[in-house]
Design brief:
Blueprint: E1 5-7, H1 10-22, H2 27-33, H3 40-45, E2 51-53, H4 54-67, H5 72-79, E3 85-87, E4 93-95, H6 96-102, H7 108-112, H8 116-128, H9 131-153, H10 158-177, H11 179-186, H12 193-196, H13 201-235, H14 244-249, H15 258-290, H16 298-315, H17 333-355
Antiparallel strand pairs: 1-2, 3-4
Helix pairs in contact: 4-5, 10-11, 13-15, 15-16, 15-17
Length: about 350
């Protein structure tokens, strides 16, 4: 944000004086408190020192910033006069009011107290700012997000931090896998200042509805994921997890040992069978909440399931047969689930028996 070497301005000197006096510190005391010699800060306040390094500036304000759960640069910008000019990296300058917004420390009370002329001046600056400053705005927003996450994480114990990190990793995966759609979702104003910022009945009501929306979205996503897995498997989508039919077609040409081929092929069978019944269950929950009439293509997904069973039995050279019906919306799906579980159980039992005396995955 700030350059490596920062010019000491009158506004910055006044901020240093105000901050240390607020904490009942003399210039000598504050110098020693941060590990400098006694004359270091008096030389700055008396304008004998013309420049300060970024690291020393942050060190000077770090303890004050920590008290407000801010980063040093946020504390500095928050407390500088709104109209003073601030030098940023790469020789870019911007008025303090703009940098406050960049770092998320702009005060609403201060903003609404501005005159119409001052509002127009700030709006005009924003509309006409340079491309270099626009790039700084983008970097500042990324920095702000990182800072919020880091600051929030500090208030939790290690177990909770690990839970939160799993959410953050999932967010990163979402953005990496489909940036545009993930951005559309994350960009929605789920928790706006009004009514979230203050305790009120409106806040309680809003959060209750937000939790309900979150639960509904979770159910919808579960259905979408299970449905996607089922149809990707049938389609033979170009990922290893969906290549069952390709493996069967090229069974004799696969170079892995027979027991390993059978082991991993059965994992594919189990994954598809599990996803079929998960999809049916998830879709039922989805239709309850969203009052939709999405239907299961029973003929497609169960004929494919039975085909998968038979193909596996064939390459495994088993003497095994079954006769199960294609269900419909009125069928007892739970009972059918148990019957297909039994097929997998029988197959797995025979494979374990066949390879039990060998050094095998079975």
């Amino acid at each position: 944000m700030f350059p490596e070497k920062i010019k000491i301005t009158d506004e910055l000197i006044q901020l240093i004086i105000d901050a240390r006096k607020e904490h009942n510190l003399t210039a000598y005391q504050l110098s020693e408190k941060i590990g400098k010699n006694k004359s270091w800060l008096p030389n700055i306040e008396n304008r004998r020192t013309k420049n300060i390094s970024r690291s020393d500036l942050y060190l000077l304000f770090k303890n004050f910033a920590d008290e407000e759960n801010l980063q040093p640069e946020q504390y500095i910008v928050k407390n500088l006069p709104r109209n003073c000019m601030i030098e940023l990296e790469d020789g870019v300058t911007a008025p303090c009011y703009h940098v406050k917004e960049m770092l998320g420390v702009d005060s609403w009370e201060e903003y609404i107290s501005l005159s119409p002329e001052e509002h127009n001046e700030e709006d005009e600056f924003y509309e006409n700012r340079s491309n270099d400053l626009r790039e700084k705005d983008i970097s500042a927003s990324v920095y702000r997000l990182s800072n919020i996450l880091s600051t929030k994480l500090q208030s939790f114990d290690l177990d909770k931090k690990e839970d939160i990190i799993r959410y953050i990793d999932r967010m990163a995966d979402n953005l990496e896998n489909d940036f545009d759609h993930a951005l559309d979702i994350y960009g929605l104003p789920y928790c706006p200042d009004d009514p979230i910022s203050e305790e009120s009945n409106a806040k309680t009501d809003y959060l209750k509805l937000l939790e309900s929306l979150s639960n509904s979205n979770s159910i919808a996503l579960d259905m979408m994921c299970s449905r996607s897995f089922v149809y990707s498997f049938i389609e033979g989508a170009p990922y290893e997890v969906y290549e069952f039919f390709k493996k069967i077609e090229n069974w004799k040409n696969l170079t892995d040992p027979e027991d390993e081929k059978l082991y991993f092929a059965l994992e594919d069978v189990k994954n598809y069978q599990f996803s079929v019944f998960s999809y049916i269950e998830d879709l039922a929950e989805y239709n309850k909440i969203f009052k939709n009439t999405l239907s299961v293509d029973y003929d497609l997904i169960f004929s494919k399931l039975y085909e998968i069973f038979r193909l596996y039995i064939k390459v495994a050279k088993m003497e095994y047969s079954f006769d199960l019906p294609i269900p419909d919306s009125s069928s007892n799906i739970s009972e059918l689930h148990q019957k297909t579980d039994k097929i997998i159980f029988d197959i797995e039992k025979e494979m374990r028996s066949r390879y039990r005396n060998r050094n095998s995955l079975w």
